[in-house]
Known about the structure:
There is one protein chain. The chain is mainly α. It has six helices and two strands. The chain is elongated, with a radius of gyration of 46 Å.
Amino acid sequence: HGAHRCVRRPLMLGGAPGLSGRWERLEPRPRAGRMLRQVLHAGLRTSFHALGRFVAGHAVFFASAPVLLSILLGASFSRYRVEGDVESLLAPKHSLAKIEGNLVESLFPVNRSKHALYSDLQTPGRYGRVIITARRGSVLDPVHLETILQVAHTADSHFISH
């Protein structure tokens, strides 16, 4: 930077009157881009020099401020909790959908036993299972219901093993 380049080129003979065949030295023309770059460079150098002097003059503040800011922002993680219920993230607490959902859940509870261990659902002892099907009609027909109730009563009163 700062040094001028010299460009030498041969002049054409007979191109213009009074020109000789020797080499001529051409100086580069100053460009607007270079001047703009020089102005920007000087301005940035001055402003960063002033910023450096300001930071050096207030070193305690610039050393302690990031630490304090990190502590203040990190303190919010003490109230951080993982939300397991997706519905609470999507609907307001007192919305009509939430109220209706709670009403439906209280009237028609869902068996949430899939989240528990199978061994937790059974009390100690022996158990048997009976699968009832109907050859004709539905299992819920009154004729079949009487048989089902009779099997259930017999299972309660006697020991069933399989």
